[in-house]
Specification:
Strand order of the largest sheet: 2-8-7-4-5
Radius of gyration: 38 Å
Order of helices and strands: HEHEEEHEEEEHHHEHEEEHEEEEH
Structural class: alpha/beta
Distance between the termini: 148 Å
Shape: elongated
C-alpha cells in the first residue's frame, strides 16, 4: 500500500508536471487600461496553476460570484486580497471571477474571468521520441556533394550590397533633423500604475518635440498649472484633451504639467511633469563649416618655420596673405614712379 501511494505521488509530479505561474495582465500587471479578456482568452488554465496579481496601493483583488462580477459588486466577496503581490492557486476546475474593489475600477475594465480545466492526461500530452539525425541516415559519399549556394564562394564575386547601398558621402537623415515624438509612459501609455517621474527624468525634451498621450475612454489629459499639478486640481485646466490619442507639441521652453482628470487618478500617480529647453547644436546634426580663408593651420606641421619665412604649405594669416598677394603690385608701382622721375633728368 505504501509503495502504491509513493508511486501516485511521483506520478503527480512527473506525469503532470508542476503548475504554471501567470502574472495577471502580463507586463502591466493588475491595473486600469489592460484588456483582461484578451489576456485570458488566449491561455489555457489548469488546476494547480498560479495567478500573481501585482499592483500598487490604489488597487486590490476580490474574488466574487458570476453575478457580482457582471454587476461589478464587490460587497460580498468570496475572498479578498490587498498585499500588492497576491499569489492565488487555482485549486479546482470551473470559472473564477476577479475584480478590483476600488470604486469605478471594475467599471473601467479592471476585472478578469478565467476558465480552469483539469490537468491534461498523459494521452493528451504524448511524448514524442526524437527521430535520428538526418546525417546519420545518409551514407557518406565518396564524392563530396556540392556545397550549398549560400556557402560556396563564387569565382567572380559580385559587388557587396553595402558598397552599392551606402553612398560615399552620407547625407544626414531627416529623422536626425526633425523633432522627437515621445509616447508618454512608454509601452504602458497614459494609465494608472506607471511611474511617470521615472519615465520623464532621464529624457531631454526640447521645443518642437511632441508628446503622445495614448489611453482608453476611462482617462483624459489635463494641462494644468504647477499649483493644480501638486494639488491634483483639474477644475481650471490650461487645456483639456479626451480623444484617446492626443498629440501635444511643446512650443515653448519651461515646465509643463499634465494629469488625468478622472476622479482619484491623479492621486494614484497618473500625472507627469516635463521640463522643456531650447534645442542646442549638440542635439541635432551639425554640418562642418568651412574655415575662413587663411585662419586654419595644418593639423601636423612638419617643422616650425621661422617668423620671416613661412612654410610653403602653411596657410598664412589673412593680413599676411593680403600683403603677400599685393607685393607684386607694390613693386610695379615703385618701378613706375622711379621711371617717371628719370624722365625729368
Amino acid at each position: 500500500m505504501l509503495v502504491f501511494l509513493a508511486a501516485m505521488v511521483l506520478c503527480a509530479g512527473s506525469c503532470y508536471g508542476a503548475g504554471i505561474a501567470y502574472k495577471v495582465g502580463g507586463p502591466d500587471g493588475w491595473t486600469i487600461g489592460v484588456d483582461y479578456n484578451q489576456w485570458s482568452s488566449s491561455k489555457e488554465f489548469h488546476v494547480g496553476d498560479t495567478f500573481l496579481f501585482s499592483y500598487n496601493p490604489y488597487h486590490n483583488v476580490f474574488e466574487v460570484t458570476k453575478r457580482d462580477y457582471e454587476s461589478c459588486d464587490p460587497r460580498s466577496p468570496i475572498a479578498s486580497y490587498s498585499s500588492g503581490s497576491d499569489i492565488i492557486t487555482l485549486e479546482k476546475p470551473g470559472h473564477y471571477y476577479f475584480l478590483c474593489g476600488v470604486p469605478h475600477h471594475c467599471e473601467a475594465g479592471q476585472k478578469v474571468e478565467v476558465v480552469v480545466s483539469n490537468l491534461p492526461t498523459p494521452a493528451e500530452s504524448p511524448v514524442i521520441s526524437p527521430s535520428p539525425a538526418p546525417s546519420r541516415l545518409s551514407s557518406p559519399s565518396s564524392t563530396p556533394s556540392q556545397a550549398p549556394s549560400g556557402l560556396s564562394t563564387p569565382s567572380t564575386p559580385s559587388p557587396s550590397p553595402s558598397k552599392l547601398s551606402t553612398p560615399s558621402t552620407p547625407s544626414p537623415t531627416p529623422s536626425a533633423l526633425s523633432s522627437t515624438v515621445y509616447k508618454v509612459g512608454g509601452p504602458g501609455g497614459w494609465i494608472i500604475g506607471v511611474d511617470y517621474n521615472q519615465w520623464s527624468s532621464p529624457k531631454e525634451f526640447h521645443v518642437g518635440d511632441t508628446l503622445l498621450f495614448s489611453y482608453n475612454s476611462y482617462h483624459n489629459v489635463m494641462e494644468v498649472t504647477e499649483q493644480g499639478f501638486k494639488s491634483c486640481n483639474s477644475s481650471s485646466p490650461i487645456a483639456a484633451y479626451s480623444s484617446g490619442s492626443d498629440y501635444i507639441t511643446l512650443e515653448r521652453p519651461g515646465h509643463y504639467y499634465f494629469l488625468c482628470g478622472a476622479p482619484h487618478h491623479c492621486e494614484a500617480g497618473q500625472k507627469v511633469e516635463v521640463v522643456v529647453s531650447l534645442p542646442t547644436t549638440d542635439d541635432h546634426v551639425s554640418f562642418p563649416s568651412l574655415a575662413p580663408y587663411g585662419l586654419s593651420t595644418p593639423s601636423t606641421p612638419s617643422h616650425a618655420p621661422s617668423p620671416s619665412t613661412p612654410h610653403p604649405q602653411e596657410r598664412l594669416p589673412h593680413s599676411a596673405a593680403t600683403t603677400t598677394i599685393n607685393a607684386p603690385k607694390l613693386a610695379l608701382g615703385q618701378l613706375g614712379v622711379f621711371i617717371f622721375v628719370l624722365t625729368f633728368f
